[in-house]
Amino acid sequence: MPRYYFHLTGPDSLHDDIGEEMEGIAAVLQVARRTAAELIAEEIVKGQIVDLAQAITVAGDQGNVLVLKYSDLFVQPRR
Fold first, then answer.
1. Model-level pTM?
2. What is the pLDDT of residues 29-70, one digit of tens each?
3. What is d(CA 76, CA 79) in angstroms, rounded to the nearest whole number?
4. In whole angstroms, how far apart are CA 40 and each of 19, 25, 61?
5. Residue 58 pairs with which residues in a beta bridge?
């Protein structure tokens, strides 16, 4: 099973050296979304401003798989 690394990129950066074995891009996207939501919630609870430019960059054994910006978690209203 491939191993994926979930890096926090943007103004605040953290490099994931451990990673997680996962099967399929759907599982990877689910973990990236959940991780971003948890990090956003932590910032809100602490009374901090959430920087929507922050992102989770997921890298697999063969390079980058996806970049999920915090702003991607919010639906923009249609005009």
1. 0.84
2. 999 999 999 999 999 999 999 998 899 999 998 887 899 999
3. 9
4. 20, 22, 27
5. 6, 66
Two tokens, residue 79? 């005009």
d(CA 21, CA 71): 26
Provide the token pair at 9. Answer: 């990129």
Q: Within 1-79, where are the H helices?
A: 25-45
For 3, residues 6+ apart whose C-beta sits below 8 A from its C-beta are: 19, 20, 21, 22, 60, 61
Which residues does residue 68 pair with via DSSP β-bridges, in sequence order? 56
d(CA 4, CA 63): 9
